[in-house]
Amino acid sequence: MDSIGFEPHDHSSCIHDGIAAVDTYCRSNGLQFTPVRRRVLEILLQEHRALGAYEILDRLREEGLGSQPPVAYRALDFLVKNGFAHKIERLNAFIACTHPGESHAPVFLICRACDAVAEAQREPTQGQLGQAARDAGFMIERTVIEAEGLCPKCQEKPAA
Amino acid sequence: MDSIGFEPHDHSSCIHDGIAAVDTYCRSNGLQFTPVRRRVLEILLQEHRALGAYEILDRLREEGLGSQPPVAYRALDFLVKNGFAHKIERLNAFIACTHPGESHAPVFLICRACDAVAEAQREPTQGQLGQAARDAGFMIERTVIEAEGLCPKCQEKPAA
DNA sequence: CCTCCGATGTAACTTTATAACATTCGCCCG
DNA sequence: CGGGCGAATGTTATAAAGTTACATCGGAGG
Questions:
Q1: Residue of A nearest to B136 (CA)
Q2: Which of A28, A97, B60, B134 maximizes the CB count within 10 A of its CB?
């Protein structure tokens, strides 16, 4: 299970590469990567933090790209449905995917102090959970795993 | 990992036992199991389904136990904080705990067709996730695992 | 050219959740 | 006794998150 972690990194390439990967994927799969959708993904990629739909909407509004909630929600739906972004249920907020286009079984590590979110991968339907589901006759289609705690940075400055 | 599953069972004992267990626990731990709190737990125990705060509030209102949102939210906060109920983030809804008073590392199996929710237990900080967190230097305090899919009953009648 | 479909624009509204402040009640201390 | 403290409750108002419904636009294909 690899993890992107919380370390600093080259952010501009992070954004550029993310957009490029999604752009390529959309072209190959007949999906429309429209300006609003692209811009929303860029906004998400700028942060390793979950953004609320209304935060995103505010930025879109400043740029004249749409001002009503459905604009943001529709773009986010598109990104989430195609695996380019994820919804963090715990926060009612959204974050760019760090592995766009690849198969998905994400796990999120959410810092309760600074809202930073790291995405790790796991094998789908891992042992314990898969077994419990089989025992119950339940058919799993999708699993959300969100761990809340403190990121390395926020562990250093306890209650600053 | 045991699971309560989706089978039918003796529901009145289910409610009675749940209330009794929490009542005992509160007495031993100096917690106030007040009428509103008790009633909210009873309401939750009546269903193996997640209820929204406003659904609960409606029932309280019918019974004259309080009519404003904070009444329901405060009772739910109490129940959740003490492990007598859980919030299902995916549904913004609440469900009674099936193992009140015991240590907690719940996993939820949520039927997307009928909203039934089963609670299973896992060992805390299971291998894969714990390792990823350690790699990232992240300190997990709490983990939410919610699997969405179809319960046995809803698998039978596919698109009825 | 027309029509269909997916994407967008916009208004209005619902659902979920919290803030803020007043009130009540039991309980302990003096 | 009675004053004061803390926990729980009552109430008003408002914030935050998400949806419905309907009009419009623009390209792909007959």
A1: A5
A2: A97
Q: Indicate yes or no: strand C within 7 A of the C-beta of A65.
A: yes
- The series of mean pLDDT values per 10 residues for chain A, 160 residues long, is 68 89 92 95 92 96 90 97 96 92 83 90 72 90 93 75
pLDDT per residue over B123-143, tens digit each? 766 677 788 899 889 999 999
Q: Which of A99, A112, A138 is most worth mutating to test chain B (most B CB atoms within 10 A of its CB)?
A: A138
Considering chain B, what percentage of its residues have pLDDT values greater than 70?
91
Pairing mode, if any, of strands B93-96 and B106-111?
Answer: unpaired
Pairing of strands A106-111, A139-150: parallel
The pairing of strands B106-111 and B117-121 is: antiparallel
Higher pLDDT, A110 or B3: A110
CA of A71 to C1' of C12 (A): 15
The neighbouring-strand residues paired with A93 are A88
Answer for A34: CB within 7 Å of strand D: no
Nucleotides of C under 7 A from a protein CB: 6-13, 15-20
Q: Residues 102-131, chain A: which have Cβ under 7 A from strand D?
A: none
Q: pTM here?
A: 0.91
3-state secondary structure of A52: coil
Q: Smallest CA–CA separation between B151 and chain A, in Å?
A: 5
- What is the C-alpha to C-alpha distance for residues B45 and B96, in angstroms, rounded to an integer? 6
